Amino acid sequence: MARYIEDVHDVARLIPKGRVTNYGAIADFLTLGSARMAGWAMNKAHGDETIPAHRVVNRKGELSGRNSFATPTLMQELLEAEGVEISASKVVNFKELFWSPTELLK
DNA sequence: ACCGTGACGTGTC
DNA sequence: TGACACGCCACGG
């Protein structure tokens, strides 16, 4: 497994429960050069139960990766189970729930 | 080696 | 504001 993929997965595991982040923040934190890399790496996380992939959304707070989950509704269900409200496949109060890995440096 | 593809993001019009 | 174009870069065919 490539290094950066593990890094992305590790960062995902660091996301606090009930909070969310986006691909760009992770890509920036790991200096991947492209947010696509983060998204692509998360796609590789599919099937790994130890990775809270549902806490990673795009910059608008949309659950863009839900189709890669076991069922298209699983991502939303997992978030709601953590207290994150979802509306029209988007995170409600995304701005407040947003968490950046750079928080770790503080 | 070339090309299409993608869980993205920013800049333009 | 919202739709669109373009840059991004690793991977598989």
A few lines on this structure:
With 106 residues, this protein is mainly α. The protein is 38% helix and 8% strand.
Write the layout of secondary structure elements.
Blueprint lengths: L2 H12 L6 E2 H7 L5 H9 L12 E2 L16 H8 L4 E2 L2 E2 L2 H4 L9
Parallel strand pairs: 1-2
Antiparallel strand pairs: 3-4
Helix pairs in contact: 2-3
The protein binds a DNA duplex (13 and 13 nucleotides) through helix 2, helix 3 and strand 2.
Word description of this protein:
The chain has 106 residues and is mainly alpha-helical. It is built from five helices and four strands, in the order H-E-H-H-E-H-E-E-H. It has helices spanning 3-14, 23-29, 35-43, 74-81, 94-97; strands spanning 21-22, 56-57, 86-87, 90-91. The model has no long low-confidence stretch (mean pLDDT 95). The structure holds a DNA duplex (13 and 13 nucleotides).
